[in-house]
Specification:
This protein has 496 residues and is of the alpha/beta class. It has 16 helices and 19 strands. Strands 7-8-10-9-13-17-14-15 form an eight-stranded mixed sheet, with helices on both faces. α4 packs parallel to α5, α6 runs parallel beside α10 and α13 crosses α16. The structure holds ligand BES, manganese (II) ion and zinc ion. The site of manganese (II) ion (MN) has 4 residues, from loops.
Amino acid sequence: MKWNCITSSLRNVEADWLIVPVSEDAITGPAQELDQITGGSVSRLRESGDLRGKLAELLPLVTGPYASAKRLLLVGLGKADDLDRRALYRAGFAAGKYVAARKHARVAVAVPEPTPRLSWRDVILGLGTGVYAAYRGPGIRQNQPDRHAPDETVLVVSSSVPNDEALVAARRAEVEGRAIHLVRDLVNEPPCDLYPESFAHRAELVSQSVGVECTVWDEKRLLAERMGCLLGVAQGSARPPRVVILRYRNGDDKPTLALLGKGVTFDSGGLSLKTTEQMQDMKCDMAGAAAVLGGVQAIAELRLPVNVLGLLALVENMPSGQALKLGDVLRARNGKTVEILNTDAEGRLILADVLCYAIEQNAAHLLDLATLTGACMVALGTEVAGLMSNNDAWAERVRQAATNAGEQVWPLPMFREYGDLLRSHVADVKNVGGRYAGAITAAKFLEHFVADRPWVHLDIAGPAWSSEDGPVRDAGGTGFGVRTIVELAHRYAQEM
Ligand code: BES
Ligand code: MN
Ligand code: ZN
């Protein structure tokens, strides 16, 4: 699919669909231009109540002789004051999903004007990434693809935006969109097809295509590398575990940013077995690892001047005669012993070992993404990731990157008392903290493995997966994390 950015009057844009965003307030920018060339029809639709401009509201129209485009799709942006990359992404997604329901040759997207809080770059990124992301659905039905990406998409910007700035932003929207496709595909892939070995193979293919160094550790190597917690989780499964090490170096002697992802390709709970209801969507439990792979792919495609170490911890969590038992004690890579009191608290175990490895590799800053706890969804809902950290300054940088990128995160406290809930009678630490503050005690567990290095943990159990299908989202994997990772790496390149 071709993806371009042009400067043109809307009248002359040749397209099967011309997407024009409309705000809930004044008719400005491309909406105003359209109003002019149609002799005031946008204003009339506004007055008649057909067009309110509510976020992601769609109004498809057939054009007349006033424009070269065959059809128009007006898409609401919501209130101008609330406009941010998140709103633009949602509007773009709704429009992209609508036009990709049928096959078309060419789709054009009119880019709205920036606001005092939002640059051209952010507007192009928000809207463009949303449109691109929606060109892929979750379905695997015979003879019935759920999306038809057009042969070409053009972003139409006004002549007042500096040309190179628009091109750079448009290209980044395409790269982020492609990474979101990868993440969504991986999360949506059934666990019979995506298991640690096949995931690792996919990581090798991705790395090869974008020029990232990729090393895969098999179970023998993991044993030699003393990754006892990860191996403990994996031992109940017929599918052997893998750890994928991605190295992208384009920052000379700058510090290394480590990105770590929980990659449980299926979480049955192990002997602490989940119910059918709880287990149904547990193919999503590798969304953190998928986000890291997608993020690294995008960073490499953009040639960002940073050094990144990406670590994917890949296991399947299953009950069996060889499965981890309650009361077992595992030894993590840093030597700490862990008493297992619930085999369903497996994500923190596999992350423990790769966190130790990132510390040994001298990573300067760490970010892990993990569908770690149901408790985080109880606390923050399905749209917001929990952010936990051992370092306020690093937490604030990650929070700002995520917020700018349009992904919602919110801090949860890491007071010392929460850590006391993990005291074991036999080992250095136990793997569960009891009924209360489950998202935080999980993070407190991880903190045992990060030395004192600046580290942020994002619990993405809520936003990584959508159980509902709607205009601004598809059921299944959402691609959460990619936009935060790319924005963070972009800032890391500038600040370090
Ligand atoms: N993968 C789950 C967390 C999860 C739940 C992700 C729902 C997405 C949706 C995780 O491994 C888990 O089972 N956590 C337990 C922890 C508990 C045993 C301390 C949980 O949240 O119940
Ligand atoms: Mn679990
Ligand atoms: Zn899990």
